[in-house]
C-alpha cells in the first residue's frame, strides 16, 4: 500500500440485519475532494455478492426497523457536511430527510413499534456555531462571539471543541409522519449519550454524568425519561462508569461498565452488567473480559448476549450466557474474530452477522456459523502480520506483530508504538503498517504492559511506572523481531503517536544507541503543562502518574531531552486538544537548543485523530513526509 492508495481503501463500518436484508456502510477517503465518501451496501445472505444500495456522497449508521419495513441512517453532505437523519423503505425507493439540525444528528435507534426514532444532537447556544442571536437574522463570525465563561474542568473535548455551550440533547421523531418534526426532550443543562428504548416503548434510557453533571466527574449512570417528555429519573447508579444500555424483553437492561473511584478510571476493563431493579450485577469477569464498546452495544438474543471483547490483539465476538455471573473469557463462546478484529455486529433471531478485518483485509461481512458473505475490503495489495511471542528480562510474557515487506532483505526496521496506553496493536487492518511495509520497512508492533486486551492487571502495570516495564516489553519485542535474519539490526527507527510518541522520546533519550532516528507524533512530553492544557489533563495525569509533581517531572520525556542525540521529527496537529501543540513546541525547542538535528511538522486544522480520521489530503501528505524522513535516515 502506497500513500496514494489511501483513496483506494474501502472500509466497511456499521452493519444491521433484519430477515434477509443485511446493510453495511462503506467509507472511502477521497483525497482530491479532501472528504470521505461512501454509501450503504446490501449483502445477500446467500453469498451472491454485495451491491450498492444508496448513492449519496456519504451514508452511514444504517438501522433496520424491528418490523423490517424501514431503514434509518445518517447522510452527510448538507449544511456544511453535518450528518442528518434519513429514512427509506427497506424494499428500496427514495429516502426522506427527517432532521435539519444545525450541528447534525447522532446515530438513531428504532422504537419497538418501528415508528419512532431516538437520537442525540448538540444544540448550540444563540450566537454560537452559526446560530443567530435572539432577534437577529445572521450569526456572528466566530471571532465576534461573546466570550466563554468557563467554570468547569471538563469544558472541551478533542475533535469536538468547547462543549458547555452545545451539550448533546435527547430527541425523538416520528419517522413515518412526513409532517412530524423532531421533539426535544432535554434542555441542555446536562449532556446525554447513547439513548435506547425500553422494551415497551414507553420510556427512553440514556447515559449521563452522575447527578446529571452537577459537577465534573468521570462517573456515569443510566437515566430514564418518558418517551413523551418529562423529568429524567436515575435508573442505574453504576460502580463508576456505564455505557451503551440495551433493553431486555423482561424490562431490565444490560450495559457496559467499569468499576472505578474518582479520577482513577484509567486502564479499567469494561464488563457486561445486568440491571433488573435491584443492584446491578456484573455478568463478566473483571480481570479477563474487556468489552470493546467501539464495536457497538451488546446485542440481546434468545441464547445469550453478544459482545465484542478485546483479547490479545483481537476483537472477538463472544456470547455471554443468560445466567452468567462473573463469567471468565474462557466461559464465553467464541463466535467470530479469532485472529481478527470485529468492527461491528448485529443479529436477528439466530442470524448473526459481523464486519471483521485482518491485517491484510480492511473488512468482510461474516455470517456467524456460515462463513464470509462478501469481501468488501480494498483491492490494494496488503501484507500479512507475523505474531511475535517471548519474554521480557523479568520473565514477563511479551506479545506483538511483525509486518514484513516483500523480498529477502535485509530490511530496515521501524518500531511503531501504539497510543493509549490502554489500547493495542493487533489482528485488525492498520494502514500505517501497510504503507511502511510497502516502502520496504519491516514494521514491529509491540503490545507492552499498559496495553488493553491482556487482563486488567496488565493494563494497570504502568500506573506510576511509565518508562519502566513498558520500555522492557517494547525492547523485548523488538529483539524478538531482530532475531530474524531478514531484518537489519543496524538500521532501526522508532516512531509512535500519543503515548507512542511519549515512548518514542523516552526510548530516544534512554536507549538512543539502538536507533538511527525518531518520529514522535501528537505526544505527551511534559506532564506539568499537560495537566492544565489537555482536555483530559485534569484527571489523566494524576490517574497515571500520581499527585506528586516530582514524579511528573521524572516521568516526563522532556526532562530527559538532553540525552537525545539522534535525528528527531516532532509531528503534531495545530488543533490537538488531547496532547496540545505546546507539548510539541517545548520538545522541539529543547532539542534544537541542545544541537539535535530536530524538525517539526504541524498540520493546520487537525486534532488528535489526524492519522485515523483527519482530512484525507493531510493523511496522504503525512505519509509522504514519514517516508521521506525514513528514506533520509534509514536508507
UniProtKB/TrEMBL annotation:
Stretches assigned to the Peptidase S9 prolyl oligopeptidase catalytic domain: 427-635
Region annotated Disordered, chain positions: 124-146
Pfam families: PD40, Peptidase_S9
Keyword terms, alphabetized: Hydrolase, Protease, Serine protease
InterPro entries in the record: 6-blade_b-propeller_TolB-like, AB_hydrolase_fold, Peptidase_S9_cat, WD40
Domain of life from the UniProt record: Bacteria
Name under which the protein is recorded: S9 family peptidase
Organism: Saccharothrix lopnurensis
Amino acid at each position: 500500500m502506497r500513500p496514494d492508495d489511501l483513496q483506494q481503501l474501502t472500509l466497511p463500518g456499521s452493519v444491521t440485519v433484519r430477515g434477509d436484508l443485511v446493510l453495511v456502510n462503506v467509507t472511502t477517503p477521497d483525497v482530491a475532494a479532501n472528504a470521505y465518501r461512501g454509501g450503504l451496501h446490501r449483502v445477500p445472505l446467500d453469498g451472491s455478492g454485495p451491491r450498492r444500495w444508496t448513492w449519496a456522497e456519504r451514508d452511514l449508521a444504517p438501522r433496520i426497523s424491528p418490523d423490517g419495513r424501514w431503514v434509518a441512517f445518517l447522510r452527510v453532505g448538507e449544511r456544511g457536511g453535518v450528518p442528518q437523519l434519513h429514512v427509506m423503505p427497506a424494499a428500496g425507493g427514495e429516502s426522506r430527510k427527517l432532521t435539519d439540525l444545525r450541528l447534525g444528528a447522532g446515530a438513531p435507534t428504532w422504537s419497538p413499534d418501528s415508528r419512532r426514532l431516538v437520537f442525540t444532537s448538540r444544540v448550540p447556544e444563540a450566537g454560537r456555531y452559526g446560530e443567530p442571536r435572539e432577534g437577529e437574522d445572521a450569526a456572528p463570525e466566530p471571532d465576534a462571539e461573546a466570550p466563554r465563561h468557563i467554570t468547569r474542568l471538563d469544558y472541551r473535548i478533542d475533535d469536538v471543541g468547547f462543549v458547555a455551550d452545545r451539550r448533546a440533547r435527547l430527541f425523538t421523531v416520528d419517522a413515518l409522519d412526513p409532517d412530524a418534526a423532531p421533539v426535544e426532550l432535554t434542555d441542555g443543562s446536562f449532556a446525554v449519550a447513547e439513548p435506547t428504548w425500553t422494551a415497551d416503548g414507553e420510556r427512553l434510557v440514556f447515559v449521563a454524568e452522575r447527578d446529571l453533571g452537577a459537577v465534573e466527574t468521570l462517573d456515569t449512570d443510566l437515566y430514564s425519561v418518558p418517551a413523551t417528555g418529562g423529568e429524567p429519573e436515575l435508573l442505574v447508579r453504576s460502580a463508576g462508569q456505564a455505557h451503551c444500555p440495551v433493553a431486555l424483553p423482561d424490562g431490565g437492561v444490560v450495559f457496559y461498565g467499569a468499576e472505578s473511584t474518582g479520577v482513577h478510571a484509567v486502564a479499567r476493563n469494561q464488563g457486561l452488567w445486568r440491571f433488573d431493579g435491584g443492584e446491578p450485577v456484573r455478568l463478566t469477569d473483571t480481570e479477563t473480559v474487556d468489552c470493546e464498546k467501539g464495536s457497538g452495544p451488546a446485542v440481546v438474543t434468545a441464547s445469550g448476549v453478544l459482545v465484542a471483547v478485546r483479547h490479545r490483539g483481537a476483537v472477538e465476538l463472544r456470547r455471554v450466557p443468560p445466567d452468567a455471573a462473573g463469567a471468565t473469557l474462557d466461559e464465553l463462546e467464541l463466535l467470530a474474530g479469532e485472529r481478527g478484529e470485529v468492527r461491528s455486529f448485529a443479529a436477528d433471531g439466530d442470524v448473526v452477522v459481523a464486519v471483521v478485518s485482518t491485517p491484510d483485509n480492511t473488512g468482510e461481512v461474516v455470517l456467524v456459523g456460515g462463513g464470509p458473505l462478501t469481501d468488501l475490503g480494498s483491492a490494494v495489495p496488503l501484507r500479512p502480520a507475523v505474531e511475535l511471542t517471548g519474554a521480557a528480562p523479568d520473565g514477563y510474557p511479551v506479545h506483538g506483530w511483525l509486518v514484513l515487506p516483500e523480498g529477502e532483505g535485509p530490511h530496515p526496521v521501524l518500531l511503531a508504538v501504539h497510543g493509549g496506553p490502554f489500547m493495542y496493536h493487533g489482528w485488525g487492518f492498520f494502514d500505517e503498517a501497510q504503507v511502511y511495509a510497502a516502502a520496504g520497512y519491516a514494521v514491529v508492533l509491540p503490545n507492552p504492559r499498559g496495553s488493553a486486551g491482556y487482563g486488567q492487571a496488565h493494563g494497570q502495570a504502568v500506573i506510576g511506572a511509565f518508562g519502566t516495564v513498558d520500555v522492557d516489553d517494547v525492547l523485548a519485542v523488538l529483539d524478538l523481531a531482530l532475531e530474524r535474519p531478514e531484518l537489519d539490526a543496524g538500521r532501526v527507527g522508532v516512531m509512535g503517536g500519543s503515548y507512542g510518541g511519549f515512548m518514542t522520546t523516552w526510548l530516544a533519550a534512554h536507549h538512543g544507541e539502538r536507533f538511527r532516528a525518531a518520529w514522535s507524533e501528537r505526544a505527551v512530553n511534559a506532564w506539568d503543562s499537560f495537566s492544565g492544557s489537555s482536555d483530559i489533563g485534569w484527571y489523566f495525569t494524576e490517574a497515571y502518574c500520581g499527585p506528586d509533581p516530582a514524579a511528573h517531572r521524572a516521568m516526563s520525556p522532556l526532562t530527559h531531552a538532553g540525552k537525545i542525540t539522534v535525528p528527531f521529527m516532532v509531528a503534531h496537529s495545530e488543533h490537538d486538544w488531547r496532547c496540545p501543540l505546546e507539548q510539541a513546541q517545548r520538545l522541539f525547542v529543547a532539542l534544537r537548543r541542545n544541537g539535535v538535528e530536530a524538525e517539526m511538522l504541524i498540520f493546520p486544522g487537525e486534532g488528535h485523530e489526524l492519522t485515523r480520521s483527519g482530512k484525507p489530503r493531510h493523511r496522504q501528505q503525512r505519509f509522504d513526509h514519514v517516508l521521506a524522513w525514513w528514506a533520509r535516515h534509514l536508507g
